[in-house]
Amino acid sequence: MHSLIQLSIVVLLLPLLSFVILIFFNRRLPRRGDFIGLGILGTAFGISAYIFWSVIVQAYDPAFRIAWDFTWIDLGNVPGVGPLQIKMGVVIDNLTAIMLAMVTLISLLVHLYSTGYMAGDKNYGRYFAFLGIFTFSMLGIVLSDNLFSIYIFWELVGLSSYLLIGFFFEKDSAADAQKKAFLANRVGDIGMWLGILILYSQFHTFSFEQIYANLAAGNFGLSNAWLTAAGILLFMGCVGKSAQFPLHVWLPDAMEGPTPVSALIHAATMVAAGVYFVARIFIMLTPDALHVIAFIGACTAFMAATIAITQNDIKRVLAYSTVSQLGYMVLGLGVGAYSAALFHLVTHAFFKACLFLGSGAIIHAMHHEQDMRWMGGLRKHMPWTFATFTLATLALAGLPLTSGFLSKDAILAGAIGFAKVEGGGIYYLIPVLGFFSAMLTAFYMGRQIWLVFFGDSRTHLKPADTSHQAHHAHDTHATHADAHHSTHAVHEVSWNMRAPLVILAALSIYAVYSPDPLDGAKGWFMKMIPTPATVVGAANPQKGALLTSNAPLHLASVVPSSETAAPALAATPVAAEHAVATAEHGEAKGGHIYSDPRQAEIVHAGHAAHFTAIYISSIMVALGIIMAFVVYVFKIIDPEKTARLIRPLYLFSLNKWYWDEIYDATVIKGSMALAKMLSWFDAKVVDGMVNGVALLVKKFAFLNDSFDKHVVDGMVNFTAFTVNTTGAVLRKLQTGKVQTYVVMLLLAVFGYFIFYFTRLIY
Amino acid sequence: MFELPSGAEIQGIIATLKASVGFFIPEIYLSVLFMLLIVIDLVAKGRKNNLLAITTLVGLAGSTLFIFQQHSLPPGELFFGMYVLDEFALFFKYFFVLSGIIAVIVTMVDEQFDREVKSMGEYYALIVAMVIGMIMMASSADLLMIFLSMELVSFTGYILAGYFKRNARSSEAALKYLVYGAVSSGLMVYGFSLIYGITAQTNLIKISHELAAHGSDSLVMIFASLLVLAGFGYKIGAVPFHFWSPDVYEGSPTPITAYLSVASKAAGFALLIRFFYIAIPHGGLAVENKLGLDWVTLLIILSVSSMIYGNVVALWQKNVKRLLAYSSIAHAGYLLLGIIVMNNQATLLYLLSYFLMNFGAFYVVILIANKTGSENLEDYRGLGIKMPLAGAALTVFLISLVGLPPTVGFIGKLYIFSALLSKGSLYIGIALVGIMTSVISLYYYMLIPLNMFLRESKRPDDKSMTLAVAPQIFMTALMILTLVFGIFFAPLSDFANYSSAMFGMTLPLH
Amino acid sequence: MLSLIVFLPIIAGLVILAVPSSQKQIIRIVSLLAALAQGVLAVLIWKGYNPALPGITAGPGGSPLGSFQFVEKVPWISLHLGGFGSLNIEYFLGVDGISVTMVILTALVSAIGVLSSWTIQKQVKGYFILYNLLASAMMGCFVALDFFLFYVFWEIMLLPMYFLIGIWGGPNREYAAIKFFLYTLFGSVFMLLVMIALYFSVLDPVTGNHTFSLVAMATQSNYIKDAILGPDNVMWRYVAFIVLFIGFAIKVPMFPFHTWLPDAHVEAPTPISVILAGVLLKLGTYGMIRINFPLFPEVFHASMYVIGIFGAINIIYGALCALAQQDLKKMVAYSSISHMGYVLLGLSAGNSEGMVGALYQMFNHGTITAMLFLLVGVIYDRAHTRQIDKFGGLASYMPVYAAVVTVAWFASLGLPGLSGFISEALVFVGAFSSPTTRYIAMVSVLGIVFGAAYLLWSLQRMFLGTRKADAAYDLQIGTDGHEHIHFHDWKGKIDLDGRELAMLVPLLLITLFLGIYPMPVLGMLTSSINKLVQVLSPVVMSQM
Amino acid sequence: MEQLTTIGLNHYLTISAFLLGFGLFAVMTRKNAIVILMGVELILNAANINFLAFSKYNGGMEGVMFALFIIVIAAAEAAIALAIVINIFKIFKSVDVSTVDTMKE
């Protein structure tokens, strides 16, 4: 077993250890054992940093991939299949290394931050335990080498998010939110599960490696439609986790959880897991599937942005911006800007975490006031927060010199290229939506900054009563807040909450990723995470024949066993064509090649569109910021008046496009009604279906009370009704008069005689 | 016109009679016992009745010895074919003697007798007489003997049913029994006359030879055998000849009810089997046509209607005795199934199981009636707690009547249905009816445990319900037998198999 | 060995019979000892079991040995019958992978049941006698390899169950009890007919007689060609299969024969619900696997589709009905209808993954649902109500209970890391892999969501948020200034007490362990299941 | 001609059939228990006539024997019947069988 593998397993198990210790013993430990969680995460980060260093920095290899697995379930010698095992295992490649480092780092920072933020909560220890199990499952997703274990950790992440969202479970809103989140995720998961099933039913394995090898070898028994379906279904998992349209509704509500949790789970890591998963399965997605993904991403990005502009809750604005940014990533993957999307995933993780932690600091300082309308003028009180928050905001808005600029621009460039390659038309909608959302992003982030930090404090404007309920709800905070509630002294937060802000803000600067402030593609990240070659050659409409012909070779970038084959690929015409492309664009692509011409074209066109993208997006962002200034700084346009002017639109945005209402009216009410109906059906009809008509039975029981009710009710089956009626009739024959008996006797004899007589005649 | 027999013939006749008497010892012994009882009654007037009871018990028990000796005798006919001795007959001899014994035991515990009647004088004598009559029913091979023995059983039955003279229901039972019985036996004997007219024979074996040889006018034959069946049907209490039974069973003294519902029913079956198997056997359609009567269909109708009617109407009964009466109608239906497929073993085994469980049930009913003074379902509420053993025993007997393992009743049902299915898919329809009706029967049988265990007593009187030791022991013994034979039924099955042989069978039993 | 494990409880019952009914504690302890001894034996059997031997059909030379294990084969009834050949009934016990898991489950659940019966106060003696009778019968069903013996055990179960529900049950117990009894008997009487018909259709290859041995029946070559259930008699084979299937489906219970279950559960006392859900329902599916399918493989093949559809209906229908329930116990009852649907679905797949999944689901459902009913019992003991809306915010006041409930609930909704997940996953994998049931599986996955829905919703309504206005309990400020919960007329510990933990913790650990490492159970199943799949595969049918 | 003059088997049978009919009619319609019993006697005598006639026309003694026994049985039956009816009269103060129906259904 490779040493890195061992290390990664250690990293995986450490947070679990912290969970186990804390969940059982936190009350017996000093400080509820938060230092344990912190220390363990520190170690974990240290190890993953080492992995990152040795994989990415020390000796970078584009096709680096080490895997290890063990038999988890052994089904023996299955008839028709042969020996069948279900394996579990971990894999480390470049992407994994980066993700490992990122997840552990952010988790560490959030742990640190929480020691300040959650101080004094009655379930303090449990909180860290939950953080531990979350980190464990997240790392599990990152490290998994097969679909099955990804699905497992997927569900576990769902669980830990459930637990953390509902951490203040006394609040009904929190309880609702956690249920909503879990269910929404489940809906996505069943799609993902079906996708997994489609693949398994063909190859009897869950392992990525073998599935891709089989796909490349063209062993997929079903039609390409099934393959596309599999892709889309797997993507549904991402729709759930990454809060893509139409399953995005849970994420904003998830803000009921503690703010650090929102930072860790609902901004940086868990929601990114969906994107990460799509990246993992990227090479088996058919073009059709990719188109669907791209459109979903675009819609999400745009919709969320439009909603964000009218929200007043500071965390909700960030939540919707998260949704919007995730939309960008998905869009990026959809259009084939693989590296850019993942790049955005990383950068976004950092600055969005920074924003959330910052908002947490603000809320903390404002004694759990979350409504931006009652904030303002905070920059004087909390300079550190202000600085970091602003920096992160710029990154999110995508201004040059920030990391956000690099990644977002790369995605948009890819989108343009994609639209070009696909032949324009409807496909231009995607970049257009992308740019438009970029503008909106700039606008609502500007609005937020202004409302929160500038102007004068508007706390006094707030109708008092509501606020008190708001935070009396989570009791411990209430006490903690009441301490200095009397004096509304807003003060900067303590160091352990400040440090993470600074670190994260620092990580949102362009220099970390790329020497060139205007081009992420020059940066190490995009060099090191190349777009892998697709394996769905047979499913690829354009160059199907060609690709199937040298399908085995495409494994080069997937299967380590045939690394040696990699150079040979340079000979393929595709590579040649691409060589030309790269040549005229005059930049080295880290030696990796695009075996899939479609991808090649897209990437090439993307690079071609690079500067167009820069121009347009800069203009858009500028527009957005200017608008924000116009509205909120110079007060040239009064927001209220505008809102009244375009009331329908305003309400539409304010009410989040009415998605909750729609779901409530259709899905939830629908299924509840169905359930009620069915259970009525069950009690009334099925219970009596066996006997035909339960009603009749009841009536019958009613008719003769002489007859013990329990019979009729009890024997809800055929005998009940028929038998008893027949009995009721027959027993009348027993008149008690002996002469009638004799008559019966004779009648019987006579009847028999007739019967035989007729039988004799015929 | 009749020339007197010559001396030689008379010598021959006397010789035959002498020889036959040797085969007739149990009957003679029992007749002696009968007279002895009357004498004792006369002598010991006013003394304790137990004397009579004990004598009867001992006497009946003693008769088993003589019956046992008959195993060594070769099967054959005696008294000029009036009477036969074969394993089949032996089986019923044991059966009836045992049921007589149990009837006496049951009577001894029944306290109603103490209230109703002063002297038990002729009671036991009549029981013995009835035993004799039934034994003769089982062994008679001649229409005349059949008629005589049946009448003997009926008459004693009438008297016993009405034994509680001052009790209106008992007397009513007697009257109904009398009228119905008289009419149906009258019809039967009319049918006999017709058969005699057709075949000029009264001996069953000869009759069947006649029919096989010359055939007959099937219409008359059918009419005759329908009338005969009216007689038999009345004895076995199968629908539509059952009407007397519920009233009579309810009205008569409970021991007599038990006795009639088991013994005289069994006697009727013995007669039915012998008559149809010997006189007009069927082994496939050919013979039926030749003998001019497809009595299988006849019995199928009988048995199906009995199973359905008995079980369905029983659902409505509030009186436990009456409920058991209807259930006995249903059981007549099940027994007929065995006869239809001409499988003596199954029938006899079922009879044995029925013997155990029905007597057991009635025994417990009497014990309970002694304490509560009532046989109404309502008054059974909460008895299970007051007298757990009786409750358990009754439950076992009822479960056995339903036919659930591990009770002997299940074995009976198992054999009956096996007999049906061993004919392939021919009789599956009837088997289904039997199965379904037994599900129905579960409900009303379970009504009794339901009242005993699941419901609280309406008047929780603290008066103790503890039973005497002896009855408890006997009851437990019956219960254990019911269970043990339900698990190790080999002896019963062997015995039934051994007893299925009949003298003069022209066709193989299968 | 097997005889011992089967008859131990009955022996205990006899001992109890001797104990005066006033000595309640002794009675309880006796039956607990019996249950524990049973558990020990089960463990020994599990240890001694060799997973390599497949079972299902006869081993080399037509004898069960070499295929089944712990075989005990004694001629019980063997007599020549005038009527129909010779009757051979054997006292024939033995286990293979399928039954050994069920044996372990039964031992476990009945031990837990005894523990939870501790609170029974009314007529303790009678209760435990019946309980032990029931335990014996259940165990017997799982190890019997002779159809007659199986049938006997099967029927013996009914009566104790009837009384246990009827006497110690809730207000509406008479109705529930008789309903249960009639439904089940209705199913089993047909089994009797089929059993007899099979008897006349099968010859024991070794002795050449008719036989009740299920092992001989499972080999198609032993059938008499033109017998009533012989290969030629296709129509009757179909009828017999359907009749048998219905008989077992009633026990499962399968829609639309399930209506007895909610009533029975709601009325039954907690331990009986545990037994009912934990073991009795398994008998239905076990019967299908042991009897229905191997004896009529070709019919099974023709009807896979139908079985699958019924499985799907069970899954979704049960889940939706559970969603609408107000009574917590009723909800759990419907949830087990839904979960047994997974078993049916897995069986209908007819491939190893599905069948292993189904078997594993049977085991897990046994442990998990036992846990659920115990938990329902806990709250019912305290609050004397099971109305979900009568609670709220319990998590604050009964943390341990809430934690256990959460784990159990998540186990029931199939959370990875807990055993329920693996079985459901395998079921879906199997059902989806077989083209016959693929689309059914696609529909059934909806069950996952609905399952999560009703469980989470009930969890929220009972444990999260704050106390409802009309809750079944009061809050009072304790000495330490914190709020404390107070149930009317409940003297005992508010949170779980030792006995309850002693029942729940083992189940929790099993659920967790088997969720992480399923092989201890799966390992025993696989070879048998693979053999079964082989027996059921159409190839074999063509050779018969 | 000969049919009319000489009395043949059929005449006997017809008579007995009529007797049977009358007997049954009496049993079914009469209310008085005594009369019902007389009806039963009629039925038995119908059988008697049959037996005698057949025994005459088939030869053999069985019929005659049978008839004799039937007569004896009838006598015994009458004795028992009367005893029961008297008992009924004691209790129900009438011999109308239709009033004797306390037990039914």
Task: Give a short synopsis of this structure.
The complex is a heterotetramer of chains A (762), B (510), C (544) and D (105). Chain C has 544 residues and is mainly alpha-helical.
Q: What order do the helices and strands come in, and which of them pair?
A:
The complex is a heterotetramer of chains A (762), B (510), C (544) and D (105).
Chain A: H1 3-25, H2 34-58, E1 65-78, E2 82-93, H3 94-117, H4 124-143, H5 147-165, H6 172-203, H7 208-216, H8 224-241, H9 250-253, H10 259-268, H11 270-280, H12 287-308, H13 314-335, H14 338-365, H15 378-381, H16 383-397, H17 403-421, H18 429-453, H19 464-473, H20 475-483, H21 495-506, H22 524-528, H23 544-549, H24 551-554, H25 565-569, H26 573-585, H27 597-608, H28 610-633, H29 639-645, H30 647-654, H31 659-689, H32 694-703, H33 709-714, H34 718-731, H35 738-761
Helix pairs in contact in A: 1-2, 1-4, 2-3, 3-4, 3-10, 3-14, 3-21, 4-5, 5-6, 6-8, 8-11, 8-12, 10-14, 11-13, 11-14, 12-13, 12-18, 13-14, 13-17, 13-18, 14-16, 14-17, 14-21, 16-18, 16-21, 17-18, 17-27, 17-28, 18-28, 26-27, 29-30
Chain C: H1 2-18, H2 24-48, E1 69-80, E2 86-95, H3 97-116, H4 124-143, H5 147-168, H6 173-201, H7 214-217, H8 234-251, H9 260-267, H10 270-295, H11 297-324, H12 328-349, H13 352-383, H14 394-397, H15 399-412, H16 419-433, H17 438-444, H18 446-463, E3 473-477, E4 483-487, H19 498-516, H20 519-536, H21 538-543
Antiparallel strand pairs in C: 1-2, 3-4
Helix pairs in contact in C: 1-2, 1-4, 2-3, 2-4, 3-4, 3-10, 3-13, 3-20, 4-5, 5-6, 6-8, 6-9, 8-10, 9-12, 10-12, 10-13, 11-12, 11-17, 11-18, 12-13, 12-16, 12-18, 13-15, 13-16, 13-19, 13-20, 15-18, 16-17, 16-19
Chain D: H1 2-5, H2 9-29, H3 33-58, H4 62-92
Please bin the fraction of helical residues of chain B.
over 70%
Number of strands of chain A: 2
**Which band does the percent of strand residues of chain A land in?**
under 5%
SSE class of chain B: mainly alpha
Q: What's the Cα radius of gyration of chain B?
A: 23 Å
Major sheet of chain A? 2 strands, antiparallel
Number of helices of chain B: 22
Q: Which regions of chain A are unreliable across 5 or more consecutive residues at pLDDT < 50?
A: 466-487, 538-593, 691-716
Keywords:
heterotetramer, A: 762 residues, mainly alpha, two-stranded antiparallel ribbon, 35 helices, D: 105 residues, Helix Hairpins
3D architecture notes:
The complex is a heterotetramer of chains A (762), B (510), C (544) and D (105). By secondary structure, chain A is mostly helical. Helices cover 70% and strands 3% of the residues of chain A. Chain A contains 35 helices and two strands. Chain B is built from 22 helices and two strands. Chain B has a two-stranded antiparallel ribbon. With 544 residues, chain C is mostly helical. Chain C has one domain. Chain C has 21 helices and four strands. Chain C has helices spanning 2-18, 24-48, 97-116, 124-143, 147-168, 173-201, 214-217, 234-251, 260-267, 270-295, 297-324, 328-349, 352-383, 394-397, 399-412, 419-433, 438-444, 446-463, 498-516, 519-536, 538-543; strands spanning 69-80, 86-95, 473-477, 483-487. In chain C, the strands form two sheets. Chain C has a two-stranded antiparallel ribbon with strand order 1-2. Chain C has a two-stranded antiparallel ribbon with strand order 3-4. In chain C, strand 3 and strand 4 form a beta hairpin. The radius of gyration of chain C is 23 Å and the shape is globular. Chain C starts with a helix and ends with a helix. The mean pLDDT of chain C is 87. Helix content of chain D is 78%, strand content 0%. Chain D has helices spanning 2-5, 9-29, 33-58, 62-92. At the A-C interface, strand 1, helix 5, helix 6, helix 31 and helix 33 of A face helix 6, helix 11, helix 13, helix 16 and helix 17 of C.
